[in-house]
Amino acid sequence: MIEQLPLFPYLETQESQRPPDFIPVYTPLLNGREEKYVLDAVRSGWISSLGRYVNRFEEDFARFCGVRNAVSVSNGTVALHLALHALGIGPGDEVIVPSLTFVATANAVHYTGATPVFADVDATTWCIDPADVARRTTPRTRAIMPVHLYGHPAPMDELRALAEEHDLLIVEDAAEGHGAQIGERMAGSLGDIAAFSFYANKIVTTGEGGMLTTDDDALAARCRMLRDHAMPPQRRYWHDEVGFNYRMTNLQAAVGVAQMERIASLIARKRAIAARYIERLSGLPGLTLPAERPGCTSVYWMVSLLVEPPFPLTRDALILALREQGIDSRPFFYPLDMLPPYFSPTPRPVSLQLSGTGLNLPSSPALTDAQVDYICAAICALASR
User: Fold this and answer.
1) Is the same domain home to 169 and 211?
2) Smallest Cα–Cα separation from 330: which of 304, 350, 292?
3) Cα separation of 53 and 188, whole Å?
4) For the residues of 340-385, what is the DSSP string, one character each?
5) What local confidence, expressed as pLDDT, does residue 2 receive?
6) For residue 40, which phi and psi values (nearest 5 degrees)?
7) For 154-175, how does the pLDDT look when each residue is reduced to its tens digit (9 = 90+)?
8) Would 6 be classed as within a structural domain?
9) Residue 302, domain extent
10) Which of these, 33, 141, 321, 368, has the minimum number of CB atoms within 10 Å of its CB?
């Protein structure tokens, strides 16, 4: 048995219990035309999966990612599942995923009957390590599912070389990477297909919701059919196979359209917040700030840091100390191969180390400079204990 990470209590405060000056980890920024477009959708009567905002949102998002096709779905997890299913991933197959990510990445593989195989992550970018992917590739491997963790793009060029060598598919888990780039290429255009989440804490939100992006027209058409009970558009109520009800509503899409109208400013604000944190916290002994790989553009979905000696508090103690000052924060994900459904007696060492020391700071684009300065001042004061 491996030594378990400490069980850190998940502290969630209801909005009614929060003091007025409480700073949450994330709040959606809905100060554009979201209300106007949702009201327009309500008044039109088209509130389910048909309506002009669904098509418009798909077109806007495809254009943003630089791909030909975007297929909207009901959330990011089903986007991953639908992508894998449409590619024919199933029982007997293996899909390599990073150990350090949200559990939905592995769950989507499990839903297909395939086996998630966990690769370690890079100690600097915290994204999947191509060298460990190569070590874990077997004749049963069908796909690699890299995650743009916390907004930094995964090493897609190296992974593409591996995929071509072993005839593998690449499914981008871009849930946290809206707008991340490698050179001029956008997340969502770097694999065979990509899956995005629009949960309330994502850079682009629709409350719940997701999107698939691909340049493969046939694959996009198959995803569109499968998301609507596998009903072909030319023959209503006929079903050649088992499909899914994974559609996005027009109400959700209306919010998404408004978000896309200012996505450039949202990303710019995210990067400015990260730069402010990094400027004020760099140099504090025991804190490691996020790195940006050369040639890559991170969108800093979460501004994260590692808390290690000689910082006077442990990561968990720092979370509690910040909360006493009205500042919310979150620990990193547990390594997936430590969770009961996917437990392995041989943990991935880098994922294990990062999981025990990583911390997500408040990262909403709604944060003011004054709030960021207050958070940094609190951390600096705790560092001087």
Assistant:
1) yes
2) 304
3) 21
4) GGG--SS--HHHHHHHHHEEEPP--TT--HHHHHHHHHHHHHHHT-
5) 47
6) -60, -40
7) 999 999 999 999 999 999 999 9
8) no
9) 19-28+263-383
10) 368
